[in-house]
Write a structure and sequence with these properties.
The protein is an alpha/beta fold. It is about 55% helix and about 10% strand. It is elongated. The protein starts with about 35 loop residues before the first helix and ends in a 6-residue tail after the last helix.
């Protein structure tokens, strides 16, 4: 996307932000609707509802086993240990039986906890699998303008930071929260049964702990939000520096990059220090308050025992319950911020999933046809002939490559028009060259042909059919495109060429490579067409990567070809070698060529000179030279393209 009128994406050396200057996704925040988000997360588990029932039963068993086991301390002391004092030969039968019962209870609790954790881990991984799948599938259906207004780091943060926090919530935080909740309710009930007075003392202390936790939790939440914001900035900056490392080194900007990164990294360090300071304070503070609570309860219980208001076994059980009461509350407070952060991340994930997908109201499809004495008939076999098929009448219109713009105006933003009243026509087989300085609207025209964006005014027709009536898949299948910025996928060279036509055979791939003059250098590679490409083709030169992109377009065999600076990364010698192949490729096709190198457009049928979104000159090379206008100035060097 070369036009500077478009929505700007984040650039190297600049902290990435989204539309309106907001910070990138991945920044922690309080969820807007925690209940709704939590309900949506668990909706992914509804097909395994029986496992959730088992989890609930296991949580109850685990908490119940602990509660029942602690209560048995009372008869253990009152009925056995205290009466045994002073006896030389006590009967240990009942005592041992009670110990066995306690051991079985605790064993059941351990087993239930293990089953609970194992099931929740399985459910969490399967849920995240479904969410990531849905996230990626939706991403593939989003309009191009979404990616123009969201940085790569922002989107990647959804797959990394946000899914990580969601996994931790599902596999750890939620099970612990439920277990703690059941434990608190059960323990509180037993404490009231044993001693309402001591229970009141514990409640006062717990209230104090909750108050302190709330105060620290508010500060902790803000600190973690700042940490996640800075983490998103650092991740986005690192990604941009990796992609632009060659540019950094060419311009000797390593020190500036290091300084910028040091600033971002220092901001992350400071935010992380604040966040974890509060988080680390919370745990020890709660533990020490729990110890204070335990000591006060023990003192008050001893007084009640001395007064005869409570037996020794009851105070022993109560003290154990006190420890088991404050601990889950401490765990609940510790997990609370993590759950809120995970829910905020989930909301960001669901926000992308809920984004409006690319609309496609087009119904006209593209089908293979055969010609019987001038009459087109749809064919289910490969014939090499294509036609547009109207859905209502079934009429077949030959695919020729006739593209026309009629009074087209367009802007990426409502308040800023990029193209003004554009009229152009490209008859089948014509080569149309678009010339103009950066930002004049050349690439925008090709984006409109592909329907990456829809026009605000006017009409665009393809073989006489309004392109809004053509299915986008059918429309784009009929177009071949070679961009200035090539992108190669991880796979073999053959796989990358085949990307233009997935059904292409090896002979077709080799033929396309020869057409683009890529066959020679491919055969000089160690494994030829089976050479593995990684890192966006980092082991190939820029020119070789460009040749593969041309071969990819050639194998698709489209009737309309768009070359956006297709030979900009190829040296003059290589360009002259492939020019014949390019001419063969363009023969019989409608071709739109965007080029700064004016020598490549001399043989164009029509040259359109754009300036500020308007066509100011049109004609053949000779005609425009004769006019001695803007094109003449560009060609003779009186005025240079920017």
């Amino acid at each position: 996307m070369s036009d500077n009128n478009k929505i700007n994406k984040s650039k190297p050396m600049v902290v990435p932000k989204g539309p309106g200057g907001r910070q990138m996704a991945g920044a922690g925040a309080k969820p807007a609707n925690a209940g709704k988000t939590l309900k949506r997360i668990f909706s992914y588990m509804t097909s395994k509802w029986y496992l959730l029932v088992i989890v609930a039963v296991c949580v109850l068993c685990s908490s119940g086993a602990m509660i029942a086991g602690n209560y048995l301390l009372r008869p253990l002391l009152n009925d056995y240990i205290i009466p045994f004092i002073g006896q030389s030969n006590p009967d240990l039968t009942g005592f041992i039986s009670l110990l066995v019962i306690m051991a079985v209870l605790y064993g059941v609790g351990v087993l239930a906890t293990w089953i609970n954790n194992r099931i929740m881990l399985t459910l969490a991984t399967k849920t995240l699998f479904r969410i990531r799948t849905e996230l990626f599938e939706k991403m593939e259906k989003l309009p191009l303008k979404y990616f123009d207004s969201h940085s790569h780091g922002e989107i990647m943060s959804l797959y990394t930071n946000d899914t990580d926090t969601l996994r931790d919530m599902l596999s750890q935080s939620v099970p612990q929260l439920l277990s703690s909740l059941f434990t608190v309710v059960g323990v509180f009930t037993m404490m009231v049964v044993l001693s309402p007075i001591l229970t009141l003392l514990v409640v006062v202390m717990i209230g104090l702990m909750i108050f302190i936790t709330g105060k620290i939790g508010m500060k902790s939440g803000k600190a973690f939000k700042a940490q996640q914001e800075n983490l998103g900035k650092v991740n986005g900056y690192i990604e941009e520096m990796i992609e632009g490392q060659k540019v950094v080194q060419v311009f000797c900007r390593e020190e500036i990059s290091k300084a910028d990164f040091a600033q971002l990294n220092n901001n992350l360090r400071e935010a992380g220090t604040r966040a974890h300071t509060f988080a680390n304070i919370l745990g020890p503070l709660m533990n020490n308050l729990s110890h204070v609570n335990y000591a006060l309860t023990a003192i008050a219980g001893a007084v009640l025992v001395i007064m005869g208001k409570l037996d020794l076994g009851a105070i022993a059980s109560f003290l154990q319950y006190t420890k088991n009461f404050s601990q889950p509350i401490s765990q609940m407070s510790t997990q609370f911020n993590g759950i809120l952060n995970a829910l905020a991340g989930a909301e960001r994930i669901f926000r992308l999933i809920d984004e409006e997908r690319e609309t496609d109201e087009g119904k006209v499809t593209l089908v293979q046809v055969m010609d019987y004495n001038g009459v087109l008939t749809e064919s289910f076999a490969h014939t090499g002939m294509w036609a547009w098929k109207k859905p209502d009448t079934g009429e077949l219109i030959p695919l020729k490559g006739d593209v026309r713009f009629q009074d087209v105006s367009f802007g990426y933003k409502e308040n800023k028009t990029v193209l003004h009243h554009i009229d152009l026509f490209a008859e089948p087989g014509q080569k149309i060259a678009l010339v103009g300085s950066t930002g004049s609207g050349k690439t925008t025209i090709t984006n409109l042909i592909n329907r990456f964006y829809d026009i605000n005014q006017g009409a665009i027709t393809y073989d006489g059919i309004p392109i809004k009536d053509i299915s986008k898949d059918a429309l784009r299948s009929s177009l071949g495109m070679v961009l200035q910025d090539t992108h190669l996928f991880t796979g073999t060279i053959a796989d990358n060429i085949r990307y233009g036509k997935l059904s292409a055979s090896m002979p077709e791939i080799i033929g396309a490579a020869k057409l683009a003059n890529a066959d020679t250098f491919i055969n000089h590679l160690e494994k030829g067409y089976d050479t593995l490409i990684t890192g966006d083709g980092g082991n190939l030169s820029q020119g070789q990567r460009q040749l593969l992109a041309i071969a990819r377009a050639a194998v698709a065999d489209p009737p309309v070809l768009i070359l956006d600076e297709a030979t900009s990364s190829i040296d003059t010698r290589t360009e002259s070698l492939i020019q014949k192949g390019m001419d063969t490729l363009m023969e019989g096709r409608t071709v739109f060529v965007i080029a700064h190198r004016l020598s490549t457009v001399r043989n164009a049928d029509v040259i359109l000179v754009l300036e500020n979104g308007q066509i100011i000159e049109r004609g053949s090379h000779d005609q425009l030279i004769a006019q001695k206008g803007k094109y003449y100035q560009l060609y003779t060097g009186a005025f240079e393209l920017e």
